[in-house]
Amino acid sequence: MFKRILIANRGEIACRVIKTARRMGIETVAVYSEADRDALHVEMADEAVLIGPPAAAESYLVIEKIVEACKKTGAEAVHPGYGFLSEREAFAKALADAGIVFIGPNPGAIAAMGDKIESKKAAAQAKVSTVPGFLGVIEDDKHAVKIADEIGYPVMIKASAGGGGKGMRIAHSTAEVAEGFNLAKAEAKASFGDDRVFIEKFIVDPRHIEIQVLGDKHGNVIYLGERECSIQRRNQKVIEEAPSPLLDEVTRRKMGEQAVALAKAVNYDSAGTVEFVAGQDKSFYFLEMNTRLQVEHPVTEMVTGIDLVEQMIRVAAGEKLALAQKDITLKGWAVESRVYAEDPFRNFLPSIGRLVKYRPPAESAASGITVRNDTGVQEGGEISMFYDPMIAKLVTHGPSRAAAIEAQTHALDAFYVDGIRHNIPFLSALMTHPRWREGNLSTGFIAEEFPQGFHPRVPEGEVARRIAAVGAAIDRVIGERKRKISGQMIGRAVIRERRRCVWLERSEVPLDVIREGEAFVVRFANPDGSLGQPHQLLSSWMPGDPVWEGTIDGHPVAVQVRSIPNGFKLAHHGYEVAVNVFTEREAAAARWMKEVDKADTGKKVLCPMPGLIVSIAVAEGQEVKAGETLAVVEAMKMQNVLRAERDGQIKKIHAAAGATLAVDAVIMEFA
Question: Which residues form the ATP-grasp domain (predicted)?
């Protein structure tokens, strides 16, 4: 077994590999760019080597620097993680030439399967069902349009190298093919250094299901069940689970056996994933093979009890698989949410900056429920504009799908992040969505259920009452602390009014609250003024705690708490709402207060995120039509097209191509 390995990656996956290596008694070496000097993976590793400037193309993607770091530190093997160099045949070969072991598949398997075009050809030769498409060289956007017209719409334009949603577009018309082709090529070039793309038929209402395979260097290959990854936004996976609510044992076995056959055909000898697009009728087609560890591998680990990173290391060291197919059983259900530094209320645009507070739910295993948090950040760290915006992967496991979802819902409510915007409100909303809970999924789920994007909502019904009750209890605790402050006037005792009017934004919830021992008892007012049944709230929350965690009538509840002027903001189940707790007299006065009007920025085009202006497509004085491209902004390797929302004339342009702008900086103004 290796004594020392180097992790040629950063962030969450580097930390993940270090944890397993440490458990196996293997020393670890981290590499880092100047932007990652204070990163968590650098702190966790036994040794760390600086490999260059922040840009990945000058650090994490430079093979020579990784090889040199291995020689400098005496690392015997390299784990590539995912992304960066993980699927580069040249990287595996360069390591081999230097006498260093690559903890991943052999270069031949990478060449055959890592390239999306070549993998489809190999799959077709192996008589694996594939999606209709064009796998040859596409000369230009006109050629792309001709191909798409022949295949029939909609089509998928996809980068041949890499994955993660980069260099991928769905086109429903000729115009969308032309633009999507050029954008996909540009993103592919920026992300992978390879601008080749291919076009294939896009299956309507599909599900994304993938099979985890594991092979060794002795010809043994097994599959470890499937993962459902249908909840996606812009082709980027958001939530994954294992197993899939669609599959039955027969379909699972067919997909698994097909994945194994394909892996054996290319002598696959590590952990890898065969991805399929599946119809609602359980039909399935080969999509691609990822010759690396997947981002979502934890859900497979949770339902099988197998550490995939450990298996990759053992296989790379020449060991035979200690497991046979008959040994693989799926136990319970696992759900994973990807926590990203992006603002769901601003069309999921990247959010960078300092993690002023980072308080994930505690990892635990009790009463049949496991909570796991794979992360590469820590409080005080910085989310950089140079890399993927992932903060963490929150995973829950339970005896059933419903139990795993309930655990995930509670864990998200308890996941507190401040300093940047993040997608936890959106993830929480997904967890409580009826269609998700029913398992009625497709890759179009988010687009169909949130066609206008994700916007702030005022809670209603049971959720509103729960938030109002917690708000009243918090206000009561704060009030009790204030009355204990020394130096106050001595006089008659103040009798606290029990009746309160809790405002959720400007929606009123009248109630009665009183302390009874360690608990607070809340009764909601009926329309006729009478009080309903009592609800008991128990919590050890104290002012300053970021999360109110306790029970309401014995049921676990977590609510995030943030101070705002004259109140606090509570976040729960995907709702973020300003809460004010008034006495009846205060509420009467507050009703006369006028809402503050927001500043009108309707004639200005603002930079939606911190990023680089790639291009400006218009000129001052130019007349534009609604839908026309105004500018392209790039951040975190993704290019975002800004379009005119209405017809108009460009009055002034404030930014030029190549400029780096802050969020809400003015790019141009309309007349």
Answer: 120-317
Q: Report the C-alpha gap between 424 and 416 in whole angstroms.
A: 9
99-120 pLDDT, tens digit per residue, is 999 999 999 999 988 777 777 7
Which of the four pLDDT bands, split at 50, 70 and 90, describes residue 20? very high
> Is the predicted pLDDT of residue 83 greater than 60, yes or no?
yes
Report CA dihedral (317, 78, 638, 450) to the nearest 10 degrees. 40
pLDDT reported for residue 376: 97
Fold held by 132-201: Dna Ligase; domain 1 (3.30.1490)
Distance CA 381, CA 657 (A): 30
Distance in angstroms (rounded) separating the CA atoms of residues 267 and 212: 16
Q: Where in the sequence numbering do the catalytic residues fall?
A: 288
- Alpha-helix residue ranges (DSSP H) falling in 152-296: 174-192, 249-265
> What backbone phi and psi angles, to 5 degrees, belong to 236?
-105, 125
Long-range pairs, 585-593, Cβ under 8 A, ≥24: 586/501, 587/501, 587/503, 587/508, 590/503
**What φ, ψ does residue 472 adopt, rounded to 5°?**
-65, -40
Residue with the two structure tokens 């006729």 = 528
Pairing of strands 77-79, 4-7: parallel
Q: What is the pLDDT of residues 598-655, one digit of tens each?
A: 666 678 898 887 788 999 999 999 999 988 999 998 876 677 889 888 899 999 999 9
pLDDT by residue (tens digit) across 167-178?
A: 888 999 999 999
Topology at the third CATH level for domain 461-483+494-591: Glycoprotein, Type 4 Pilin (3.30.700)
pLDDT tens digits, residue range 473-486? Answer: 999 999 888 877 76
Classify strands 4-7 and 27-33 as parallel, antiparallel or unpaired: parallel
| Architecture of the structural domain at 4-103 | 3-Layer(aba) Sandwich (3.40)
β-bridge pairing 623-624 and 648-653: antiparallel
Q: What are phi and psi of 256, to 5 degrees?
A: -65, -45
d(CA 258, CA 277): 14
CA 163 to CA 188: how far, in whole Å? 9
Reported in sequence order, the residue ranges of 189-332 that DSSP labels E, i.e. its strands, are 197-201, 207-215, 221-233, 236-242, 271-278, 284-290
| Other CB atoms within 10 Å distance of the CB of residue 137 | 10
pTM for the whole structure: 0.84
Rounded Cα–Cα distance for residues 369 and 349 (Å): 33
User: Is residue 578 within 8 Å of 491, Cβ to Cβ?
Assistant: no
Can you give the residue ranges of every domain in the chain?
4-103, 132-201, 461-483+494-591, 604-670
Q: Which of 34-38, 561-565, 633-637 has the lowest mean pLDDT?
A: 633-637
Hey, what CATH class is 604-670 in? mainly beta
Note the residue count of the chain. 671
Can you list the alpha helix ranges (DSSP code H) found in 483-581? none
CA 295 to CA 337: how far, in whole Å?
11
Contact 45, 26 (CB under 8 A): no
How many CA atoms within 13 Å lie on the side-chain side of 515?
Answer: 12
Quick check: 568 pLDDT over 90? yes
The whole-angstrom separation of Cα 78 and Cα 230 is 31
